[in-house]
């Protein structure tokens, strides 16, 4: 009887450790995406959108149009549409401040820096994921 209980206890402990490992790796993967997205944001977007995404970057004062608060996308649109945000970043939606659709400011930079369409899409995804993480609650 004791051996059977010991075996069950070992099984339950192993199962608990496996579940914790999966949860930890999922959190770690999400954290890595957010870290990469934050790094990209600071490098390419913060000069206009500010380090906090609220539009107060050092270049903002010299621009004609006010810089949108990127922490308010979800509240402004009623939801955070990751695909729409990625399409804006990549230049699928033309936004005057970003340049023409055929050559958006950062879409061009990402493609030139990486040399790979897949890497560019992953960077744009990481940036979109980071923006989702800074949405106002």
Your description of this structure?
With 137 residues, this protein is an all-alpha fold. The chain has one domain: Cytochrome Bc1 Complex, Chain D, domain 2 (Orthogonal Bundle). Helix content is 64%, strand content 0%. It contains 6 helices and no strands. Helix 1 (2-44) crosses helix 6. The longest helix has 43 residues, at 2-44. The chain is globular. The N and C termini lie far apart (53 Å). The model is unreliable at 5-28 (pLDDT under 50).
Report a brief summary of the structure.
The protein is mainly α and about 140 residues long. About 65% of the residues lie in helices and about 0% in strands. It contains 6 helices and no strands.
